[in-house]
């Protein structure tokens, strides 16, 4: 596995304009893909938007700008250990809060609330991934732990969607297609859950594997570079 691209990005200051430009194109493709999947149901299209924003755009932008505090103000930068787990909690709390039936019903009926939901979830994910990529050295275990916890709790929502015997949102209608009274069906809900269960290992678990590989490579390099004690050399 080639992980040198991530190793080169982590710890640098500033933004990469080329990556930001490519990520802006991802937003355009996200809108087109979400519109395509919305034919399967409002919750499926809604979930595709979530996945692209939180699992693709957010980590890409975090890689392009992996310093969330100004590089010329090092004294104002909070320790990484104070950023990661609050970011994880905020991201998970936003995800579950917005998918409570009353909140999702309101968001699907209002363009403004729907935009607020997507923006808050994206910003929460951006904070989380930025904190992940700030982790380095012997503290990489914190990033791996946060990724695994996030993956598990994200997948719980997907499992709930897939195995629920009835729709969890019987009152929710798509505010964007209200004229057609397109509601959330069990099949729509199950497909949305399957998409979540596919996206979790493809992002969080994979990122954990890459970071673990970087960590082990660093340990191997440090061990190989460490000087041999004189007594052992004589022996």
Structure description:
The structure is a single chain. The chain is mainly alpha-helical. The longest helix has 40 residues, at 186-225. The chain has one domain (4-66, 81-222). It contains nine helices and no strands.
Number of domains: 1
Cα gyration radius (Å)? 21 Å
- How many strand elements? 0
β-strand amount = under 5%
Overall pLDDT, averaged? 78
Number of continuous helical runs: 9
Shape estimate: elongated
Share in helix = over 70%
Terminal-residue CA separation:
38 Å
- Please outline the major beta sheet: none
The string of secondary-structure elements, in order, is: HHHHHHHHH
List low-pLDDT spans.
1-14, 68-76, 174-181
Structural class by SSE content: mainly alpha
SSE blueprint:
Blueprint: H1 4-9, H2 17-37, H3 42-64, H4 84-98, H5 101-109, H6 111-134, H7 140-163, H8 186-225, H9 230-234
Helix pairs in contact: 2-3, 3-6, 3-8, 4-6, 4-7, 5-6, 7-8
Short description, anyone?
This protein is 71% helix and 0% strand.
Features:
235 residues, single chain, mainly alpha
């Amino acid at each position: 596995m080639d992980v040198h691209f991530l190793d080169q990005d982590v710890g640098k200051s500033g933004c990469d304009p080329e990556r930001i430009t490519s990520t802006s194109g991802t937003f355009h493709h996200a809108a087109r893909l979400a519109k395509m999947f919305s034919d399967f149901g409002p919750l499926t299209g809604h979930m595709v938007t979530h996945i692209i924003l939180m699992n693709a755009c957010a980590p890409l932008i975090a890689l392009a700008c992996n310093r969330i505090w100004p590089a010329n103000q090092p004294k104002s930068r909070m320790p990484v250990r104070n950023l990661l787990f609050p970011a994880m909690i905020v991201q998970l709390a936003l995800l579950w809060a917005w998918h409570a039936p009353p909140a999702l019903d309101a968001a699907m009926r209002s363009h403004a609330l729907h935009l607020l939901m997507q923006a808050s979830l994206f910003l929460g994910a951006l904070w989380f991934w930025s904190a992940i990529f700030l982790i380095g050295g012997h503290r990489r275990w914190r990033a791996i732990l946060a990724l695994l916890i996030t993956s598990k709790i994200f997948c719980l929502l997907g499992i709930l969607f897939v195995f629920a015997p009835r729709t969890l949102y019987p009152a929710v209608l798509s505010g964007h297609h209200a004229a057609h009274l397109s509601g959330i069906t069990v099949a729509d809900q199950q497909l949305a859950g399957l998409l979540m269960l596919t996206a979790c290992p493809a992002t969080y678990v994979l990122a954990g594997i890459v970071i673990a590989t970087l960590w082990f490579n660093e340990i191997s390099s440090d061990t190989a570079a460490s000087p041999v004690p004189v007594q052992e050399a004589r022996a």
